Amino acid sequence: MQRLLLILALNVFSAAPLQAAPNIVFILADDLSWSDLGCYGHPYHQTPHLDRLAEQGMRFTQAYAPAPICSASRAAILTGKTPARLHFEFVTKADPGEQDFDVPLQSPPFTLDLPLSERTVGESLSECGYTTGFFGKWHVSRHHQGYLGWSPTHGPLKQGFAEGDSDFGSHPYVYREKKGLKSTPVKGRDFPQDTLVDKAADFLERHQNEPFFLYLSQYYVHDPVHSRSQSLIEKYRELVPEDSKEIRIEYAAMVETLDHLVGRVLSELDRLELAEETLVVFLSDNGGHPNYTTNAPLRGSKWNLYEGGIRVPMIARWPGTIEAGVECDVPVHGCDLLPTFRDVAGQPQKGADGASLLPLMTGQVKDVDRSQPLVWHFPYYHPEKKFADCPEEIGVGDFVTSQTRPHSAIRSGDWKLIQFYEEDRVELYYLADDLAEQHDLSAEHPEKARELHRELNAYLKQVEARLPQSRQARP
């Protein structure tokens, strides 16, 4: 409020009105399914804060993560470049190496660190005069002193963020540090205290009088799946279908806990009287984990390029700028965020693989003007352990981890083509009529399949994408 009063006071003595740069809060969820939220149709997950965020802003029905897996998606969101262009297509590891098990193709070597030469959204918004903070899961560099520990050479504080913290908050990851906590139930309230959001809220309060960019990278709802809230467990024991796996009760409690933590951030913006001058964007980094949730009606899950692996919930709110209660059916993806945030900051800059969504959010246009196609590239196998024991067929809402093999995908309009490298074959789907990707139309529409196949491979060649190689052909 003090910043706004200062701007108004200066306007009295200025020939032209001065515009206060809006704040930006970006909240990234981990492994949250497209269908996990109440506002996306989930039958029993209770997510009142995110539902209200959607009521107050724009809910995207065809938003995509840049990748079906954590590190690759996060690197792309940070840079506005696809994993194919970045050569960062898989999860980061502790040591150099490559996948080594009995499969036909050899995947590329692991990418360990997002190069410091890559310009992140933190660096970009710092140049625009924003105070930048990163709190939570980084996971685009090697682990330091423990799982998900920030690298001292390649962490967020070396990539444009002025401050931040990797605190696990109330996520079960913290059990590794605090022995006995897992078996200690929360008393007197539904939700455990979360020190990560405490620190993010402190960042908001300390920088309330200057333009800020808060990147809150949540660990929820990634496994290990567990809740210490007995009240939530008891509630969802009544709500979860009787024939469901027991773990779904714990998972539902984690989803509601994530919603509660988002609500705390929104409440802090309200308390500081900053909601009207803050763009809030919520997104998930990839599709849901099939051991714990369903991505139905979408086919597939985390790790593969069917819709269940890459289509994710996305909500944007900016009171007075984004119309409340709007549903947007335009395909968008995580690489669009960097150019969008630059545009919001008043210093537009074209993205390598994304485009600003600000004109779409404000209703100035009905579609996104893209210079690059919507492409996904996953040249790896998954799971890396017991791959041969997993089923080959990738189903819809079957709660099964299937075999994912090297493949890439492209979307153009309502058409989507997936290229599989082992057999050098493609599948073609028309998503407007076949959301669950059950009817391969490549034989019925060979010209469309050839057109998208050419476009996909032209893009992969342009960015010098790393492709899986035949093991027999390797030197």
Give a short synopsis of this structure.
The protein is α/β, with parallel strands linked by helices and 475 residues long. The chain has helices at 2-12, 48-56, 70-79, 83-86, 121-127, 195-206, 230-239, 247-271, 307-310, 337-344, 358-361, 446-462, and strands spanning 23-29, 58-64, 105-106, 131-136, 163-165, 212-217, 278-284, 311-317, 326-328, 332-333, 374-378, 407-412, 415-420, 425-430, 469-470. The strands form three sheets. Strands 1, 2, 4, 5, 6, 7, 8, 9 and 10 form a nine-stranded mixed sheet that branches.
Structure description:
The strands form 3 sheets. Strands 1, 2, 4, 5, 6, 7, 8, 9 and 10 form a 9-stranded mixed β-sheet that branches. Helix 6 (195-206) packs parallel to helix 8 and helix 7 crosses helix 8 (247-271). Mean pLDDT is 94; it is low at 1-19. The protein is of the alpha/beta class. It has 12 helices and 15 strands. The longest helix has 25 residues, at 247-271. 25% of the residues lie in helices and 16% in strands. The chain is globular and about 60 Å long. It has 2 domains: 22-369, Alkaline Phosphatase, subunit A (3-Layer(aba) Sandwich), CATH 3.40.720; 375-470, Arylsulfatase, C-terminal domain. The N and C termini lie far apart (65 Å).
